[in-house]
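Everyone, study these two lines:
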Amino acid sequence: MRGAILYGPRDVRFEERPDPKIIEPTDAILKLSATCVCGSDLWPYRGIDAPAYPTPMGHEYCGIVEEVGSAVRNIKPGQFVVGSFFASDNTCPICQAGYQSRCVDARLMGAEGAQAPWLRVPLADGTLVATPDIPSDDLIPSLLATSDVFGTGWFAADAADVQPGKTVVVVGDGAVGLCGVIAARQMGAERIIMMSHHETRQKLALEFGATDIVTERGDKGVARIKDMTDGLGAHSVIEAVGTQEAMMQSIRSTRPGGHIGFVGVSHGVQLPGEELFFAEVHLLGGPAPVRRYLPELIDLVWKRQVNPGKVFDLTLPLDQVAEAYRAMDERRAIKALLRP
């Protein structure tokens, strides 16, 4: 088969790769219906944490089960399934506590390279969730979103302890932040403030349920949030960027006793201890345990109660994956969906 391979900064190629096959008895092989480029893929694409050798890319996926290993009991050939970007056994004590992304046998799906027509999924019974039936084509983008960005946005809102009637601030207007708006709305937040200075993303945030837009960043953005919350700050803040500025903006926008859910992949973030100490806020984040939420999120999508697939504002055939990366890198697209 052919799939995406990153050779170096801004050098993605669509090349021949070995066909995936059953290696362990707990594996499944999927024929992918859709995959995509993630914002976190842009870090190595831009040369930050770049691989030292040509590396398959992609960790978001959904599709039809073609084959399963001899130890797979619950996932069956012919099912349409969605899986997390971390494979997990879903049985260890960490998984049972709801943190499948830190499973004692966690496998990062990026190592398998999901930007391809076929994919091997390890630990299939613990990783994959089947839909009630084969979905209609228009549901596939939203089902794909549950694999990462919607699941990550949901975890961010959960980690930020979003509660009915409370105020939520979202720092980061990419696909994850936008999905965090959906999550906050579903969780009953009264006020959802999206911090964004991109008009197209602002419009989508408002469509998803944001009540306010703040265009300022950094200290000016914090001052605006304080002005809007009687000088106190927000009850909950979603940090969906991963930079020093975004993290400090999030901490300073949170009221004492408030909660921050941080899911942006951290790069160069250092927290000043004294300021953090006196901020007196709750911090919870990291790689989202998407598997915890998949059944609920798939159900919401299946019943058409949410439409996170709208974050995909560019759809391309898989063989144009290099253009998908360029479009997101140049902010011409929020998120690019790829059809094998």
